[in-house]
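Lecture notes, continued. The same structure-token format from the folding unit now serves as the input rather than the output. Read the line below as a description of shape only.
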């Protein structure tokens, strides 16, 4: 470069004493003239930048700036000189610059300006204090705090890992960070590496660490460099990456969790101070990986059956939905297995023995199926095996093999037990495309196998299953019917045979489905009983009826009694009397205006729960009616012990009793029994005048049927009474 005379030192500072002070200052000092040329560069500045003053003096100050700032710096200074706006002058700020060897250095910059010389030219003087170590230490502490704060919130593990890598990339400019997780088997997965080239990602994820590698990384974390950067020339030729710094990540107990790596995009080799950044990030990385593993274990716990270690029903359903979504219509078979022997083992040998049996069967199923199939336990003694790409032939073979391994003796507390499996098989998509539907199909087939071929298997849709699909569809829709308010009540009037006035109504459930239309009770009530939904429907009917009694009262419509049907399921619960009493109180209904109708099978039960419930209902003043009397096997001695207020003769006995002497005799006997027991007799199915006349002659108390009215909606009852005022009941 040409000789350069320092105008500042020759003309503005004649006393070399002050120049020597600036030269020997501990902080770097740089002075530039009005042309942005460096006119002073002391020894501390030489040390910071790694350049001797002789190669710097006279050059534009841009040569000392990082590349990303050089294009804009001259414009900033020109604006300052022209406007006098000193936004960064007389302030302190953190800057990063590049040393001669390519290292990035962090420093505090203080900038001053002055007009000097006869021509009052503006000079700038910068004081630079290197603070790389301290800045990095503080930023690492701040980063660690941010990581811990994020982990305690609702931020995803992916977001926390991405945040850490992004922050580190800012600490070390022109770098790419990656957080890798190492499994106990030595395989590597990437938690975060948003900016990493695809071929490098592929290379990293293909690495499998040997036990020796993992032991070496636990003892010497910095050996991770050799793992992720085994061949420097090969790496450089495939990417824009030129070097890296890495460290193994271990937890407090010494377990290898992962590797944190920082790749350099600088072509020039720089010193290893970024390695200190990587090492300083290890505690934060360990926290992220351990938190991710904890979440995974919790997720696994929620998805795993604790007794057998197999998938539970929730996890199975999720996997099946994923299979259906990913593979479109790719077939698979669902085999539902029931352990035939379990209940006997529980009863005779205790539940601990039953658990041993289930665990042994589960291990055998899992061992046979291995990784090719999904295996789950749905609960109790039911297991499921999902066989991908299966047809009837493959399913038959698997069912046969499963039963073979199940029949091998199982030793439980010194006894050799021989179990068998009843297996139901459904095929996707042949037997349905909805997951709950296809699972239900396999369960129905399993129940059929248990009844007809215990220890064998049955396919869904064969051998008497022609109506099962319809039951599945209706059963599934029924679950939502109450929530969607598709069910409603109608009320069929009951007439006093002696006076012809209204003495009550029977509440009857109806279901109007938006697409299936009106579904008759004869269809959905049995399905509700099979699927365990009848209890909810019965309680809903009870509440709606009580509410309707109250509403009629407010509308000045008098309906003496409302009869509500309750199923056998309700009488298994000791809460039933309290539920009825709660409804009566809620709607301020007199107990005598409510009658509970029960089936003959319930009335004949002699278990203590049923007897207690029946007596409790009568004790509160609610009526009890036995429906469909005569269709079962009623015991007269049992009938005399029941707290009934009425019996209802089934419609089948009066359909043709004027021409059928047997039906007439039964009807007459039933009425006579009621009279002798002091309870009322109701006859259903009255459709003709002749039937009414005959029943009146026999002394029947209450008549019900289409001869008087079809079942009516609640708002139609007042209109029906107005149309025939003689039906009006008197309050008394």
């Amino acid at each position: 470069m040409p000789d350069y005379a320092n105008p500042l030192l020759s003309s503005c500072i004649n006393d070399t004493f002050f120049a020597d002070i600036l030269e020997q200052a501990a902080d770097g000092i740089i002075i530039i003239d009005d042309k942005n040329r460096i006119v002073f560069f002391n020894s501390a500045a030489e040390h910071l930048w790694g350049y001797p003053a002789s190669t710097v003096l006279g050059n534009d100050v841009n040569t000392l700036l990082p590349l990303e700032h050089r294009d804009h710096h001259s414009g900033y200074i020109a604006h300052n000189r022209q406007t006098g706006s000193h936004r960064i002058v007389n302030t302190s700020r953190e800057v990063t610059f590049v040393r001669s060897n390519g290292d990035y250095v962090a420093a505090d910059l203080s900038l001053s300006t002055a007009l000097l010389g006869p021509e009052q030219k503006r000079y700038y003087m910068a004081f630079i204090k290197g603070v790389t170590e301290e800045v990095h230490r503080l930023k690492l502490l701040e980063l660690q705090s941010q990581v811990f704060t994020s982990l305690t919130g609702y931020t995803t593990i992916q977001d926390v890992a991405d945040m850490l890598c992004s922050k580190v990339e800012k600490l070390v400019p022109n770098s790419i960070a990656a957080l890798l997780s190492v499994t106990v088997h030595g395989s590597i997965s990437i938690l975060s590496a948003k900016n990493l080239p695809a071929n490098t990602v592929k290379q990293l994820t293909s690495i499998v660490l040997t036990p020796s590698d993992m032991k070496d990384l636990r003892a010497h974390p910095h050996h991770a460099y050799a793992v992720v950067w085994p061949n420097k020339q090969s790496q450089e030729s495939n990417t824009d990456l030129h070097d890296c710094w890495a460290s193994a990540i271990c937890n407090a107990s010494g377990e290898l969790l992962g590797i944190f790596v920082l790749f350099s995009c600088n072509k020039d080799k720089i010193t290893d101070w970024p390695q200190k950044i990587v090492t300083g990030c290890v505690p934060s990385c360990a926290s992220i990986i351990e938190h991710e593993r904890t979440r995974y274990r919790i997720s696994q716990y929620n998805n795993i059956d604790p007794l057998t270690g197999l998938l539970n029903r929730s996890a199975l359903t999720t996997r099946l939905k994923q299979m259906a979504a990913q593979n479109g219509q790719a077939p698979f078979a669902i085999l539902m297995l029931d352990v035939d022997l379990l209940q006997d083992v529980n009863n005779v040998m205790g539940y601990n023995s039953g658990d041993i049996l289930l665990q042994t069967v589960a291990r055998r199923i899992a061992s046979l199926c291995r990784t090719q199939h999904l295996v789950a336990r749905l609960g109790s003694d039911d297991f499921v095996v999902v066989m991908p790409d299966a047809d009837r032939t493959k399913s038959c073979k698997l069912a046969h093999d499963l039963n073979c391994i199940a029949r091998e003796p199982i030793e439980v507390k010194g006894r050799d037990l021989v179990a068998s499996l009843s297996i139901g098989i459904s095929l996707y998509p042949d037997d349905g495309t909805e997951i709950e539907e296809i699972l239900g199909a396999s369960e129905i087939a399993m129940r059929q196998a248990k009844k007809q071929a215990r220890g064998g298997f049955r396919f869904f849709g064969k051998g008497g299953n022609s109506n099962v699909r319809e039951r599945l569809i209706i059963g599934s829709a029924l679950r939502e019917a109450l929530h969607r308010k598709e069910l409603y009540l109608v009320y069929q009037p009951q007439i006093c045979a002696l006076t012809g006035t209204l003495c009550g109504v029977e509440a009857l459930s109806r279901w109007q489905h938006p697409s299936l239309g009106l579904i008759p009770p004869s269809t959905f009530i049995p399905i509700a009983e099979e699927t365990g939904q009848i209890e909810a429907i019965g309680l809903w009917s009870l509440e709606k009826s009580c509410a309707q009694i109250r509403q009629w009262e407010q509308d000045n419509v008098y309906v003496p009694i409302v009869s509500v049907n309750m199923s056998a399921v309700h009488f298994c619960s000791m809460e039933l009397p309290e539920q009825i009493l709660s409804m009566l109180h809620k709607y301020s209904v007199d107990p005598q205006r409510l009658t509970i109708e029960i089936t003959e099978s319930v009335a004949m039960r002699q278990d203590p729960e049923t007897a207690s419930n029946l007596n409790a209902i009568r004790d509160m003043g609610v009526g009890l009616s036995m429906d469909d009397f005569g269709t079962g096997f009623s015991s007269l001695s049992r009938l005399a012990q029941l707290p009934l207020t009425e019996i209802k003769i089934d419609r089948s006995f009066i359909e043709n009793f004027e021409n059928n002497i047997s039906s007439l005799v039964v009807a007459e006997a039933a009425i006579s029994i009621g009279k002798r027991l002091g309870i009322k007799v109701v006859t259903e199915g009255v459709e003709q005048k002749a039937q009414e006349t005959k029943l009146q002659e026999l002394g029947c108390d209450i008549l019900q049927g289409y001869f008087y009215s079809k079942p009516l909606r609640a708002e139609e009852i007042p209109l029906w009474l107005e149309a025939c005022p003689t039906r009006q009941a008197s309050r008394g």
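Point for the exam: The chain has four domains: 15-131, 135-302, 313-463, 484-727.
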